[in-house]
Amino acid sequence: MEKLLHYIWKHRILPLSELRTTDGRSVEVIDPGLPNMHAGPDFFNAKVRIDGVMWVGNVEIHERSADWFLHGHDTDAAYNNVVLHVAAVVDADVVTERGDRLPQVQLAVPQQVLSNYRRLLAFDRYPPCREAVLPLDAIKKRSWLSALVAERLNEKTEAIRRRVALFEGSWEAAFFATMARSFGFGVNSEAFEQWAERLPLMQIAHHRDDPFQVEAMFMGMAGLLDEAQMTPATRDAALADPYFLSLKREFGYLSRKFRLEPMARQAWRFLRLRPQNFPYIRMSQLAQLYCSRRAGLAEITACESVKQLHAVLQTSVSDYWRTHYTFGKESSLNEKRLSTASLNLLAINAAVPVLHAWGCYRDDERLVQRALDWLEQLPAEDNTYIRLWKECGVEARNAADTQALIQLQHRYCERKDCLRCRFGYYSLKRSSTSQSPSQPSPSGRA
Question: Which InterPro entries is this protein grouped with (predicted)?
């Protein structure tokens, strides 16, 4: 309930009748203030006119007035600048740390908003706000998508900055870890990132002219050469394979030389993966790309088009993996070059975020804009959620739009965070007469 009170105060969804304090003074909300997501009062720098006198200060909101004392605000000097206390139930007078008695307004959540909110939470068809989104004009839809893609890029930029800090300021290592995560293509992304964080890149760089040694180091550090962690059938096939034994010997030598500690093989997922996505194949592709020296940070930032970016990212596997998907089991010849769809995903999930982050770090607006341009030039991704939004009239025209919809799904829909979503806002505003007869009741039944 308190979240809804915050919401109606922020968006000024107030009663038509005049607001009054509990002691009868008139209240006019000039500016609800800035929402505060951290410690302290809920809204900063609000402007309210109480009985004709303008007050500028903070506003605190609770479900019950007594929560003021329950939360210890009466002993916290940070709440001394509160000029108005708002509660759904006023059951106590409230005072600040310095002893000032605060004016209070009893504010109930409008029944229409409450009903709409419950309907959103109970709706079992995705997206729950579809009936409100369908009639929205294109400008409102595009405006929210633009905000969402910017939000997603900023989140990815922060993730890259954390990687830079983890690698003690090395943007090149942070870029490699970002690229490695993208080579997991969702299923093994977390494992690839953990693996990249363990790699001794400075030592591996000395062997960059020898793809076999790099592949041995890559697979060995991933735990993929440890037969003790394999299933019996996989182990028997591997131990009968000369290439596996060669990689294992090479890694044994390098691991002793550099005192390396591999990760557990169990971190990698093989089940229900297409053979093209097996960690062995992706690891070999990444090793070949690393040894080619074509896809470093400088090369990515030098690209001026998606076509150039694709050429930089293109790679295949070593000779052995052209006829294998796993150790000891030969398959038909296939160079296993990255498909156009895979190149697009690497561009979206690695190249674009790194270019954006690097542009922000260097304060280079040209690079930041290029990252956005690439997203708009790359084709739209395809998944169930994107297709469902299309049914609501929110059609993804390019990768920027699909990244926006992925952000909407992960940060709002999955968390039922409708109160922060613009589509949720339009849903909560809907009048009862505009509800579709096919919509379910809050219980989930039609």
Answer: DUF2851
pLDDT (0 to 100) of residue 223 = 97
The mean pLDDT of 121-147, rounded to a whole number, is 91
Of the pLDDT bands very low, low, confident and very high (cuts 50, 70, 90), residue 436 is very low
Question: Radius of gyration (Cα) for the chain, nearest Å?
Answer: 28
- Give which of 210, 190, 187 is closest to 264, Cα–Cα: 190
Structural domain of 396? 111-166+379-446
Bridge partners, 105 (sequence order): 21, 86
Both 132 and 93 in a single domain? no
pLDDT band at 109 (very low <50, low <70, confident <90, very high): confident
Between helices 399-408 and 365-377, what is the axis angle to 10°?
Answer: 90
The domain boundary, picked from 109, 133, 156, lies at 109
Look at residue 282 and tell me if it is in a domain.
yes
Q: 226: left (phi > 0), else alpha (psi -120 to 50), else beta?
A: beta
104 — pLDDT class (breaks 50, 70, 90): very high
| β-bridge pairing 26-31 and 82-89 | unpaired
What pLDDT, on the 0 to 100 scale, is given for residue 433?
A: 44
Are 223 and 315 members of one domain?
Answer: yes
b/e per residue, 105-143, with b = 16+ CB within 10 A?
bebebbeebbbbbebbeebeeebbbbbbbeebeeeebee
Over range 418-427, report the average pLDDT. 92
List, in order, residues 6 or more apart from 186 with CB less than 8 Å away.
Answer: none
Q: Are strands 43-50 and 26-31 parallel, antiparallel or unpaired?
A: antiparallel
Contact between 5 and 32 (Cβ < 8 Å) = no
Q: List the structure tokens of 52.
A: 């004709």
Joined tokens for residue 430: 């809907």
Torsion of CA 170, 195, 328, 247, to 10 degrees: 50
pTM score, whole prediction: 0.82
Task: For residue 9, count other CB atoms closer than 10 A to its CB.
Answer: 23
Other C-beta atoms within 10 Å of 15: how many? 10
Kindly state the tokens that stand for 276: 């093209």
pLDDT of 316-334, one tens digit each? Answer: 999 999 999 999 999 999 9
d(CA 65, CA 68): 6
State the number of CA atoms in the 13 A half-sphere of 295 facing the CB: 27
* pLDDT (0 to 100) of residue 429: 82
- For the cut 50, the answer to whether the pLDDT of residue 432 exceeds it is no
C-alpha 4/C-alpha 6 separation (Å) is 5
- In angstroms, the CA 289 to CA 351 distance is 14
Q: Looking at the structure, do residues 205 and 332 belong to the same domain, yes or no?
A: yes
